[in-house]
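Re: 2-acetamido-2-deoxy-beta-D-glucopyranose structure - here you go.
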Amino acid sequence: MILRILTALSIIQLAHQTEKVISVSQPPLLVAENKNASIFCSYVCKSPETRTFKASMLKGTARAVEVCSVSWNGNASTHNDNKSGIKCRIEVNTTGVMFNLYNLSVNQTDIYVCKIEAVYPAPYHHGESNGTVLHVKEEPQKPPQAPEHSNAMVAAVAVATGYSVVATVAAVLIYCRLRNKKMRLPRNDYHNMISWQANSPKKRNSQPSAPARTYTTYRFWEP
Ligand SMILES: *[C@@H]1O[C@H](CO)[C@@H](O)[C@H](O)[C@H]1NC(C)=O
Ligand SMILES: *[C@@H]1O[C@H](CO)[C@@H](O)[C@H](O)[C@H]1NC(C)=O
Ligand SMILES: *[C@@H]1O[C@H](CO)[C@@H](O)[C@H](O)[C@H]1NC(C)=O
Ligand SMILES: *[C@@H]1O[C@H](CO)[C@@H](O)[C@H](O)[C@H]1NC(C)=O
Ligand SMILES: *[C@@H]1O[C@H](CO)[C@@H](O)[C@H](O)[C@H]1NC(C)=O
Ligand SMILES: *[C@@H]1O[C@H](CO)[C@@H](O)[C@H](O)[C@H]1NC(C)=O
Ligand SMILES: CC(=O)N[C@H]1CO[C@H](CO)[C@@H](O)[C@@H]1O
């Protein structure tokens, strides 16, 4: 009985050890402001006899899609790509692996997990990190549209200003004309005029509101 427990314990310890031969870490969150992103995965391998490594980038919570991978043995490396449609370039150095992802689209926002494997010689080990949540943002508005937009704003403001000036002048003119007629007007009409005057400044102050902002959604060209 005791022997069995000890054996079980040692198996658990062994499993724990093999799990920790390669530890991988990467940033938990990354925001891609344009269509490119670079995820650096650092790793520690406690098996110095390992000659051949493989590093892969897995996409999704199920870690089922391999975006790209690289195998290296000393100075030589082979690179596999395009399994997910994401363009990928990989750089390896002694501390980790840099995955450069290109031409990402918003709907490729997902979790991206680094997996490092000690392929040769045996025993085989592997390590996976908790992954990077990559948030691909929509590309900002194209710069050439900005001046056009502000020109339109300036024009609208100018028109509004001109309109209110004209309205003011017209109101003053009408007021003067009515004042000249005042003596001849019955009292009722005078009251009407006063109430019209009281409404007038409100009218002038309510400028036409600025034109609604036009959001131009950036769309990728369909192939
Ligand atoms: C994304 O990377 C590609 C390839 O290096 C480059 O040509 C492009 O200019 C980059 N785009 C941005 C927005 O940085
Ligand atoms: C790797 O280095 C060895 C010598 O250390 C050399 O013979 C071999 O050609 C190199 N391979 C590459 C792909 O550079
Ligand atoms: C490996 O690359 C990363 C990312 O470019 C860099 O931060 C790190 O300093 C590099 N390490 C070495 C040993 O060159
Ligand atoms: C993701 O977006 C691209 C264009 O932005 C589109 O071509 C593609 O079909 C979309 N994929 C999915 C799964 O929605
Ligand atoms: C990864 O997640 C596990 C459980 O969610 C946690 O215990 C561990 O600390 C995490 N590792 C890193 C490097 O954040
Ligand atoms: C970028 O991705 C879009 C779809 O997401 C595709 O239509 C386009 O051809 C790609 N551009 C390049 C340079 O690969
Ligand atoms: C989607 C796609 O283009 N897949 C190609 C990736 O590259 C391999 C060869 O390495 C092709 O066989 C696939 O068709």
